[in-house]
Amino acid sequence: MIFAVLIPLLIACFIPYLSKIKHKIHTGYFVFIIPLVIFIYFVRFIGNDFTPVRQTVNWIPSLGINFDFYLDGLSLLFVLLISGIGALVVLYSIFYLSNQERLGHFYVYLLMFMTAMLGVVLSDNIFVLYTFWELTSISSFLLIGYWHFKERSRYGALKSMMITIFGGLSMFGGFILLSVITGTTSIQQMIAQSDMILTSDYLPLILILILLGAFTKSAQFPFHIWLPDAMEAPTPVSAYLHSATMVKAGLFLVARFSPVFSGYELFFIIVSLIGIITLCWGSYMAVRQTDLKAILAFSTVSQLGMIMAMLGFGTEAAVFAAVFHILNHATFKGSLFMVAGIIDHETGTRDIRKLGGLLTFMPMTATLALFGTFSMAGVPLPFLNGFYSKELFFDATLGLDAATILSQAIPYLAVFGSIFTFVYSMYFFFGVFTGPKQFNLLPKKPHEAPMGMLISPIVLVLGVVVIGLFPNLANAPFLLHAAQAVNSGVEFHEVSFWHGFKPPLIMSLIVVGLGTVLVMTRKKWASVYTVLPGRLSFNKAYDKLIEKIDSYSAGVTNYYMNGSLKTYMTLILGTTLIVTFIFMLLTNGFALSTDNSADFSVLEISVVIIMIIAAIATIFMNHNVAAILVLGVVGFGVAILFVTYRAPDIALTQLVIETISVALFLLCFYHLPKLKKSTDSAKTKIANATIAIGFGALMTAIGISAHSSNWFDSISEYFIETSYTLGGGDNIVNVILVDMRGLDTLFEIAVLGIAALAIIGLIKYKKNKGAE
């Protein structure tokens, strides 16, 4: 499995070379093979006898971080969506993107995203999952901002990354708490210890942190605002990221952790409430839009809310309906995004106010849109898969415990959201393909798309029809395994078009009836949007928040980044002093032990006193040379101490370094202004003295504490015993530096060499500038 996850990223390394021949053969043809092969590899796991598969590759075993891949029914569903629709999107992009585009960049970003999504749904290790999770945010940022010369593309890309990264960091905090509580980084092992998690005092915090990650990624209210702006991406990106993959990552996260939290009442309240609100708000706002992709964006928000609500219900019926609708939504919404791209590509606009009467000019596109929109609307027809999962959704809302007000209100809210789902679906289809022709408003004369661009949406629409005609075809061998991974109590049951004149069917008929009335009278009630939301806008709130953050950050940065080296050193040393002192104090880090200490004589005491006097004397020196020479006394005093303690090698090194340092200081200070008497205020002098004395005292305390603490066995005995047998030398220090830590020494020499080259370059640069 690890090969299947990483192969898109590996192939991405060769895309820049393949894109050089894009004028002979489109780069997409090379890329198309990758998701197709992955899809074929994983589709073989479908079957009634499927059992989960695990694979582990060590990465950082000391921290419990390994590539632990786990393939069960849930991850298999998402893997097939990622790879299958990924292949169709790449095929579609071949005809959508011309050779004049930066194809190398596009396909590198797309393959990077594919690897990230595969890693998210297959990872059993929470920290590896988080790594892939953030990679989806980064790669989607690059894809959304692909047309970077457009201001709206840059804005949408930054907005999506800001919101999803915020959620990702919150989720990471929840993961850390989970690993601390359970003592493991494996999701499956956490599920096995769910009782321990449910009894933890940190349970509410863990739940909220993880749900923040899920809600931001799956565009749940009020974090949904990034998704419509992400529609500035090329249509293949929208069809892939925003219908089938990235926006469903949050659904996957909730589904994966449902076995842990489903017994917790707060999980039901938060997830169900946010999901149903998102369903209603997204469908309501979709009718207001005039851009085709904006309509589909809000419809995606609405559909994601419906699935999230079902996962929140947590019942067997709701979980199966959620899994079923994840599959159905990918088919009809992916095809509709491609249809929107075709309309834009062949007419030059996505503004529904300029479109109309395209049925006779684009009959195949219109047919695809008919199946997609009517399935999305849940129209009760036996060849539309959307109706089946919508019926299951209604049935799940009626199966909730009616003991709470929320449970009683959910069926009514579900009908309300579904009514507007019907309205925006009809608004999309009839607004584009029927009505008066307005070709004078179109930038291009409309015509049918080339067959290559139609293949992918045709395949997806065929999925809509096949699932509609044979709803149980993939039930037992595929969907049932996915649902059981979320709720082990889910059992096989037949999905049928006609199941009697029962409440779910009545709810569907109410949706169609009231929805038809609202469609016919849309112009009469559309003014309601001036009242709700009116001037209220989450986008304005986001923009205002970002503006305030930028302004505050600029003020803070300008305060300390004032060009003063003295200010920088004060802040660095002061912060280090405070943070380190508090941390060591809270963790009992200060220790004092005189065991194993060497004896000292009058000579050592005298040398130390001279060093202290010299260090203090530098403060009062007003001449550069005198200050440097007095400071050198401290360094040479250290060398004398090394000699007295029988470390001649270290003493020699200290002497060489100190001699070079003094010489370099003299050279540098020759070009610097002469020292002047300090004119700082008494307050500043006290602050400087406090930081200096405190920092010095802290370093002394750390040194004493490090010497006095025995957290680990000393390695000195190992060096004494093996320096001759392994290194072939009696001088232990030399053997350590040359043999046992030879690589460290090598890289230290390399660093010094690089620094020397940089200094030579700067000197030559200055000389050349002077000659000019």
UniProtKB/TrEMBL annotation:
<feature type="transmembrane region" description="Helical">
    <location>
        <begin position="161"/>
        <end position="182"/>
    </location>
</feature>
<keyword id="KW-0375">Hydrogen ion transport</keyword>
<feature type="domain" description="MrpA C-terminal/MbhD">
    <location>
        <begin position="609"/>
        <end position="674"/>
    </location>
</feature>
<feature type="transmembrane region" description="Helical">
    <location>
        <begin position="29"/>
        <end position="47"/>
    </location>
</feature>
<feature type="transmembrane region" description="Helical">
    <location>
        <begin position="685"/>
        <end position="706"/>
    </location>
</feature>
<feature type="transmembrane region" description="Helical">
    <location>
        <begin position="106"/>
        <end position="122"/>
    </location>
</feature>
<feature type="transmembrane region" description="Helical">
    <location>
        <begin position="355"/>
        <end position="379"/>
    </location>
</feature>
<keyword id="KW-1133">Transmembrane helix</keyword>
<dbReference type="Pfam" id="PF20501">
    <property type="entry name" value="MbhE"/>
</dbReference>
<keyword id="KW-0915">Sodium</keyword>
<keyword id="KW-0406">Ion transport</keyword>
<feature type="transmembrane region" description="Helical">
    <location>
        <begin position="264"/>
        <end position="287"/>
    </location>
</feature>
<dbReference type="Pfam" id="PF00662">
    <property type="entry name" value="Proton_antipo_N"/>
</dbReference>
<dbReference type="InterPro" id="IPR025383">
    <property type="entry name" value="MrpA_C/MbhD"/>
</dbReference>
<dbReference type="Pfam" id="PF13244">
    <property type="entry name" value="MbhD"/>
</dbReference>
<feature type="domain" description="NADH-Ubiquinone oxidoreductase (complex I) chain 5 N-terminal">
    <location>
        <begin position="60"/>
        <end position="107"/>
    </location>
</feature>
<protein>
    <submittedName>
        <fullName>Na+/H+ antiporter subunit A</fullName>
    </submittedName>
</protein>
<keyword id="KW-0472">Membrane</keyword>
<feature type="transmembrane region" description="Helical">
    <location>
        <begin position="451"/>
        <end position="470"/>
    </location>
</feature>
<feature type="domain" description="NADH:quinone oxidoreductase/Mrp antiporter transmembrane">
    <location>
        <begin position="123"/>
        <end position="406"/>
    </location>
</feature>
<feature type="transmembrane region" description="Helical">
    <location>
        <begin position="627"/>
        <end position="645"/>
    </location>
</feature>
<dbReference type="Pfam" id="PF00361">
    <property type="entry name" value="Proton_antipo_M"/>
</dbReference>
<keyword id="KW-1003">Cell membrane</keyword>
<feature type="transmembrane region" description="Helical">
    <location>
        <begin position="202"/>
        <end position="227"/>
    </location>
</feature>
<feature type="domain" description="MrpA C-terminal/MbhE">
    <location>
        <begin position="687"/>
        <end position="764"/>
    </location>
</feature>
<feature type="transmembrane region" description="Helical">
    <location>
        <begin position="745"/>
        <end position="763"/>
    </location>
</feature>
<feature type="transmembrane region" description="Helical">
    <location>
        <begin position="67"/>
        <end position="94"/>
    </location>
</feature>
<feature type="transmembrane region" description="Helical">
    <location>
        <begin position="409"/>
        <end position="430"/>
    </location>
</feature>
<dbReference type="GO" id="GO:1902600">
    <property type="term" value="P:proton transmembrane transport"/>
</dbReference>
<feature type="transmembrane region" description="Helical">
    <location>
        <begin position="568"/>
        <end position="588"/>
    </location>
</feature>
<feature type="transmembrane region" description="Helical">
    <location>
        <begin position="128"/>
        <end position="149"/>
    </location>
</feature>
<feature type="transmembrane region" description="Helical">
    <location>
        <begin position="600"/>
        <end position="620"/>
    </location>
</feature>
<dbReference type="InterPro" id="IPR001750">
    <property type="entry name" value="ND/Mrp_TM"/>
</dbReference>
<dbReference type="InterPro" id="IPR001516">
    <property type="entry name" value="Proton_antipo_N"/>
</dbReference>
<comment type="similarity">
    <text>Belongs to the CPA3 antiporters (TC 2.A.63) subunit A family.</text>
</comment>
<keyword id="KW-0050">Antiport</keyword>
<feature type="transmembrane region" description="Helical">
    <location>
        <begin position="501"/>
        <end position="520"/>
    </location>
</feature>
<dbReference type="InterPro" id="IPR050616">
    <property type="entry name" value="CPA3_Na-H_Antiporter_A"/>
</dbReference>
<keyword id="KW-0739">Sodium transport</keyword>
<feature type="transmembrane region" description="Helical">
    <location>
        <begin position="651"/>
        <end position="673"/>
    </location>
</feature>
<dbReference type="GO" id="GO:0005886">
    <property type="term" value="C:plasma membrane"/>
</dbReference>
<keyword id="KW-0813">Transport</keyword>
